[in-house]
Design a protein that fits this description.
Chain lengths: 111, 328
């Protein structure tokens, strides 16, 4: 089964770095990965939390749910986003200081 | 510098409890670090009561940018049939009848849409992206570094978004090799969470009182949630030396780097009244000497940041789970 993995990003894309905050990150880069770790598709979506006055984390998680994301890789989400991710069954993995490509490689190699 | 970092290093001064000395310490730390050659930008993230600029003696800004956020309802009088449904439904009592017309008090309206759901004639519209506050910028304060300050307009909801914009503006002004010193608001709410998100060091300030210690533990819990290493400064320490020891032993047990204490010193109050950071106005007073010592420690942390972070990073992330009250 292909998996959708979201990366927390600024401008988005494989060469963008993981953005340092979750709820108010500008974009999510959603990568669909096949069973053998091959990239099936890459999509950059705007994060509605970026422009939100309040409830940024919740809006960000809603977007991930709408996009059918199973795993999100980025900074530690805030308290409300954490709870929402948990309830949505989306796994959150903490990774910072790397590009999306590097984060994906690390994730796929199980590091 | 931290490997792989895109923006500057974010240092947050936070305390939970108000009045313990966040802005006073932030102002002096900013000056000390800047003089030691760190490319510093100061950011006031307490938008409800911004006053870091006043501690630094700055009241004239180089640039004031409007900040847009939120919405409020207004009623189109020609469509209104004066049924009073909106007035009954408004959970904030923001609607009243003035000279026979239904009007919304925009200072009270939260923009929750309830009135528009009950209005039978769809007479209610929303004003959006209203000026909710300002980003105020001084490119060079009298102490040489830039200052960015957020200020919320009375009646507008305060939010982490303004804090995010203050931080982003500060990082943009400073550039990727800068150090952004963020003076956080009191409490552990939206603004403070936003100050902490993405930060690299949190300097927690406490005074030796049970009230301050209780709030310190709350702010500490947030640092564990975000996985940010934390340091501690105890202010007004000689007011209760035994309690200082108590807080210090808590810090050691909880992987918090204790940076030192500052004695109670009435010169601090005189310096604030003169709108000068205490280390500038009374460089030889006990509080200033303590601040220089603490500044030196922060400088050495920044010089060996990766090493320090590894030492004080939380072992595991301890999620801060809000209590959710569900209607029965």
């Amino acid at each position: 089964m292909p998996k959708k993995i979201a990366f927390v990003t600024d401008k988005g894309g494989l060469d963008d770095r993981i953005y340092e905050r979750f709820g108010r990150a500008p974009t999510f880069t959603i990568v669909e990965v096949g069973d053998n770790g091959e990239i099936l598709s890459i999509k950059v979506v705007e994060n509605p939390g970026f422009k939100a006055g309040s409830g940024a984390g919740i809006k960000a998680v809603q977007k991930l749910i709408d996009e059918g994301v199973e795993i999100v890789i980025g900074p530690n989400p805030g308290p409300n986003a954490y709870l929402a991710l948990q309830q949505a069954g989306i796994k959150s993995i903490s990774m910072l200081g790397v590009t999306v490509r590097e984060a994906l490689e690390r994730f796929l190699s199980g590091k | 510098m931290i490997k792989g970092l895109t923006g500057g290093v974010e240092i947050v001064v936070a305390s939970g409890k108000g009045g313990v000395g966040k802005s006073t310490i932030s102002a002096s730390l900013a000056i000390i670090l800047n003089r030691r050659g760190f490319k510093l930008v100061a950011a006031d993230a307490d938008a409800e009561a911004p006053n870091l600029n006043l501690v630094l003696g700055e009241t004239v800004w180089d640039s004031i940018e409007p900040y847009y956020e939120g919405r409020y309802a207004y009623i189109i009088d020609e469509k209104c049939i004066r049924c009073g449904e909106c007035l009954k439904a408004c959970p904030f009592d923001a609607i009243s009848v003035v000279d026979g017309r239904y009007v919304v008090n925009k200072l009270i309206c939260e923009g929750c849409y309830t009135c528009s759901f009950v209005c039978p004639t769809k007479a209610i519209r929303f004003a959006r992206d209203i000026v909710a506050g300002y980003l105020r910028i001084k490119y060079e304060t009298r102490y040489g570094f830039p200052l960015v300050s957020g200020e919320i307009t009375p009646g507008r909801p305060n939010s982490g978004k303004l804090v995010t914009e203050v931080k982003n503006k500060a990082k943009k002004i400073g550039g990727p090799d800068s150090y952004v010193l963020i003076d956080a608001a009191a409490g552990i709410g939206c603004q403070v969470i936003s100050s902490l998100a993405g930060a690299h060091i949190v300097i927690m300030v406490a005074e030796p009182t049970p009230a301050s210690f209780s709030d310190l533990k709350r702010i500490y819990k947030l640092t564990r949630h975000f996985g940010i290493p934390a340091a501690l400064v105890i202010n007004k320490a000689d007011l209760n030396p035994e309690y200082v020891e108590y807080i210090k032993s808590w810090a050691v047990k909880n992987k918090v780097d204790y940076l030192g204490s500052i004695p109670y010193d009435e010169k601090v109050a005189y310096a604030i009244a003169e709108m000068k950071p205490v280390i500038e106005y009374y460089p030889d007073t006990p509080a200033s000497r303590a601040l220089y010592k603490i500044g030196g420690k922060v400088a050495s942390i920044l010089s060996n940041l990766e090493e320090w972070r590894l030492k004080y990073l939380p072992e595991k992330i301890e999620p801060f789970i809000p209590i959710v009250i569900k209607p029965s």
